[in-house]
Amino acid sequence: MSKGKRYTEEFKIEAIKQVTDRGYSVNEVAERLGIATKSLYNWRSQLSGKKAIRTSPDNSVRIAKLEAELKRVTEERDILKKAARYFASNPE
């Protein structure tokens, strides 16, 4: 006797990402994928404890670019602060 359909871990993660990352409702995702809403809620609670929903490679690249930009902007700000102090102390 079968207990029902078995879904892969990847399928579960992608289904949960549609709810958590893309902002779809659980009902929308469940209906689109043909699964029960209870299953999605269960998967979300199971996977949240495992840290299974990881940052995608695209997000990792984006984060690295943003960190580099933050560093550059911070350095520029510091240079401008030093210049402002210099010109404030040496009025000509």
UniProtKB/TrEMBL annotation:
An example of a Gene Ontology BP annotation on this entry?
DNA transposition
Q: Which domain of life is it from?
A: Bacteria
* Pfam families per the UniProt record, alphabetical: HTH_Tnp_1 (PF01527)
State one molecular function term (GO): transposase activity
InterPro entries associated with the record: Homeodomain-like_sf, RD_transcriptional_regulator, Transposase_8
* Entry-linked PANTHER family: PROTEIN DISTAL ANTENNA (PTHR33215)
The family line of this record is:
Belongs to the transposase 8 family.
Q: What is the name of the protein in this document?
A: Transposase IS3/IS911 family protein
> Which organism does this sequence originate in?
Brumicola pallidula DSM 14239 = ACAM 615
